[in-house]
Amino acid sequence: QVQLVESGGGSVQTGGSLRLSCAGSGFSFSSFGMKWYRQVPGKERERVAYISSGGDITNYADSVKGRFTISRDNAKKRVYLQMNSLKSDDTAVYYCYVLLFSLDVWGKGTQVTVSS
């Protein structure tokens, strides 16, 4: 069964840090690029970061550049999102995503709340 499970969310003060983790199973993890998205109620889901299958290519939404870092450990079948200098605007549910050929696979999400 193909599955993505996020963890690491929580509540943090403005300027703080969190590291999200996403565990993949049921597919050849090292063969696929991975993405993190986030969503605030009432708004469209926003792509936050992407990492290639080998980890050598990354890109970020302008809103998080210089603050967030995506990485992966293919041996552990995990992708990470290190979030630093968090702002209240970063409050959202964060989702892990992979496109397996024509199949969209989403995790259930993890809540990140940033407060002053």
Query: So how many helices?
Result: 0
Report low-confidence residues grouped into runs of 5 or more: none
CA distance, first residue to last residue: 40 Å
Share in helix? under 10%
Major sheet attributes: 7 strands, mixed
Shape: globular
Strand portion: over 45%
The SSE order reads EEEEEEEEEEE
Overall pLDDT metric: 97
Q: Rg to the nearest angstrom? A: 13 Å
Derived structural class:
mainly beta
Number of strands: 11
Description of the structure:
The protein is mainly β and 116 residues long. Helix content is 0%, strand content 54%. The protein contains no helices and eleven strands. The N and C termini lie far apart (40 Å).
List keywords for this structure.
116 residues, mainly beta, 7-stranded mixed beta sheet, 4-stranded antiparallel beta sheet, globular
Question: How are the SSEs placed, and which strands pair?
Answer:
Layout: E1 3-7, E2 10-13, E3 18-25, E4 34-39, E5 46-51, E6 58-60, E7 68-73, E8 78-83, E9 92-100, E10 103-106, E11 110-115
Parallel strand pairs: 2-11
Antiparallel strand pairs: 1-3, 3-8, 4-5, 4-9, 5-6, 7-8, 9-10, 9-11
Briefly, what is this?
By secondary structure, the chain is mainly β. It has strands spanning 3-7, 10-13, 18-25, 34-39, 46-51, 58-60, 68-73, 78-83, 92-100, 103-106, 110-115.
